[in-house]
What does this fold into?
Amino acid sequence: MALLELDGLTRTFGGLRAVGDLSFSVAQGEILGLIGPNGAGKTTVFNLITGYVQPTAGRIRLDGKSMVGLRPHAVARRGIARTFQIVKPFPGLTVRENVTLAAFLRHPARRDAEAAAMDVLGRLGLAARAGDLASQLTLMDQKRLEVAKALATGPRLLLLDEPMGGLNPSEVDVASGMVESIRRAGVTVVLVEHVMKAIMRISDRVVVVNQGEKIAEGPPAQVVREPAVLAAYFGKRAG
Amino acid sequence: MSRALRPWLAGAAALALVPALGPSSFFLHVAILILMWTLLGAAWNVLGGFAGQVSFGHASLFGIGAYVTIILYLKAGLPPWWGIPLGGLAAAVASLPIGLVCFRLRGPYFSLATLAVAEIVKLVALNWEAVTNGPVGFLITGLPPLRLLGATVDWESKVPFYAVAAVLALAGLAATAWLARSRLGAYLVAIRENEDAAEAVGIDTVRAKVTTLALSAFLAGLGGGFYAFYFRYVDPDAVLNISLSMEMVFIAMVGGLGTVGGPLIGAVFLTTVGETVRERFQVGHLIFYGLFMMLAIRYMPEGIWGRLRKLVASLQSRVPGHGAA
It folds into this structure.
């Protein structure tokens, strides 16, 4: 059985259909790339899965259990963590405090939570920054912190919203390696990303959405050659 | 453990010494006001300072405490030592529906909603005459006889009120210190820093805020109950006035938002400044009060306590053997 199943997921904002009848599933241990042009509804899909926005229609199931109607904190407790495209650190707190707050979800005792936080920071190469204020980090490190906070909640499924946006090519390579190591640690990953080099390299499978609807699905190398995908990104060939 | 308790014991001892110095009744009156405002500043600070939820309506919680305490005394003969805690409890219970309504809103909208709720509570008190006596309010003419440690308590003296106020203020600060070290306190700071991110890492933000509002309301209600017995007079203008809400905000801000000792420092400064200029300049004394507020916020945005803490930290870092350069 799939870890995450979306079935007929729909969300309208007034007359605008941000997501329409979207269905796909994510297998345990997979890295799934969710791609599409700007405004295709990718972030809305994340907001629907994590309870920030409620669906107009459709089903969301984690391990067969419905997730519709849960508030974001309850979704996190069930094992789905997310990052935000525009990073949302706790700016006035240190990196360690940021991640400890997330670790409280699985470790109620402060000492255990702090140990778990340091463990995650070590894995993501942020241990040296543990005492710095989150607001003082570089963009790359803020993106790392965003992932560290999500991982510290002990998720089974991690939703990454453009973790590589704004990074330079060598940073993209580092970030790609980080996502692969997260998967090796047993966490399933869904990745929204515009950096195609990273998508091609690390995703097992790609789902392409345009105007809120799925237009293609399959292995990355095959999907990027499909006419519907090319049309969505570049428009139809004239004449 | 004993190390953490030391400042508390020292503070309690210092407070216990004051009446023994034979102070004037005006001095004791000011001390009582300072302690009452410390409690009220602490009440506002747990919600406004730690959770960043700026309430402009805490007078309603104070007033509910005052009304419940005085009504229980006058109608049911319940003495202060039961009435004041029950006043706090009533305010905490009343805060639950208030929180469920107001916490649907964020930021300035939350603040405006609390302001509206406070006005509603005041209108209810003015018009529900069967329970509240309307604009006339209640007056206590005599307090119950009490023997303590073999002596009759003299309610005409200010000393017993001073003792009660000291206990309540210490309780308020102790509750703040507990919160600052607790997991709930950490959650509140996360909510203050970024509410969406707090939810994302699994923090039930509504529950944390409602719980904290209840704690805040309990402390404010205790303050109201104390007020009822000390001033022996409760009416809507006295205990549900918006100026009470503002005073709590000012004390917490001038002292230092989200700090344990801030409300005490804020209450000391603002009550002293307020009472001093009130005596010197009968007309327009609020101008000086306002000026002091502006200077404090302009030059010490982190509050007096926050500024002192920074100063101590920077001094310590210069002393060899204390690490950091």
Summary: Chain B touches chain A through 18 residues (CB under 8 Å).
